[in-house]
Write a structure and sequence with these properties.
Layout (H helix, E strand, L loop, with lengths): L4 H13 L3 E3 L2 E7 L5 E11 L3 E3 L2 H8 L5 E5 L3 E6 L2 E9 L20 E5 L1 H13 L4 E7 L2 E7 L9 E4 L2 E3 L4 E6 L10 E6 L3 E6 L4 E6 L5 E2 L1
Antiparallel strand pairs: 1-4, 2-3, 3-16, 5-6, 6-7, 8-12, 8-14, 9-10, 9-13, 10-11, 13-17, 14-15, 15-16
């Protein structure tokens, strides 16, 4: 099996959410953060014929990167990684015990949404960059009267620097404050359709890639 560029990109992204990964049979990959506040799902081109548990996904990806054109052969207990044009050059990578690997046990059912909007990749990158520049740990989607903004800030410090962008949302007209931790926005680059529930959970679905995320909101979130 040769992994597509999209699949490698997904695996690299999943490694930022959790170093553990269980690849189940089929063509759907899922992961969950250790705190269980981020769940991600992606559909990939490849179809895996057996369950594979990887304890250190970054190490696994680094092993693949040792080869110019890697071919993966999934066996019982280990995967053999070979150079496509020099198959005698190979690496044997052993699977982990699935019992020590964190993975989602069931599919998340999103509650009814109160707010939805489209977040383009450019604005997402601006928010992340601004959060890094001004050392802002929090992101809030806030509506006051008719205006809605996404703002990176420190919610514990009213005099801390902030950065905001205007957002066009679909909502029933109530005021709200939905808080995220910036560190939990571990999504792949691109545009997203975002749905937010007052039950303190959100769903981000990529508009150009087969990947989606469920991210928990912070307890301070409110919807009037």
């Amino acid at each position: 099996m040769k992994l597509s560029e999209h699949t490698v990109e997904v695996l690299k992204n999943f490694a930022t959410i959790n170093q553990n990964l269980v690849i189940k049979e089929g063509s759907t990959l899922t992961t969950m953060s250790a705190m269980k506040n981020i769940v991600a799902k992606a559909d990939v081109e490849e179809s895996f014929d057996k369950e594979v548990a990887i304890y250190d996904l970054n190490e696994f990806l680094a092993s693949i990167s040792l080869f110019t054109s890697p071919i993966l052969e999934f066996n019982d207990g280990f995967v053999t990684i070979k150079e496509e044009n020099s198959p005698k050059n190979s690496l044997k990578y052993f699977y982990s015990d699935p019992s020590v690997v964190t993975s989602p046990s069931k599919t998340i059912t999103m509650p009814s949404k109160e707010v939805s909007f489209t977040l383009n990749g450019e604005n997402l990158n601006k928010l992340k960059r601004a959060a890094g520049v001004i050392q802002a740990p929090d992101l809030v989607l806030e509506k006051k009267d008719a205006d809605v903004f996404l703002t990176v800030k420190d919610k514990k410090n009213d005099t801390a620097n902030t950065f905001s962008i205007d957002v066009d949302t679909k909502t029933e007209g109530s005021n709200f404050k939905f808080f995220y931790k910036v560190e939990n926005l571990k999504v792949m680059e691109g545009n997203y359709d975002v749905e937010i529930s007052s039950k303190n959970i959100s769903h981000l679905k990529s508009t150009n890639k087969d990947v989606e995320y469920w991210v928990a909101l912070e307890p301070e979130s409110s919807y009037e």
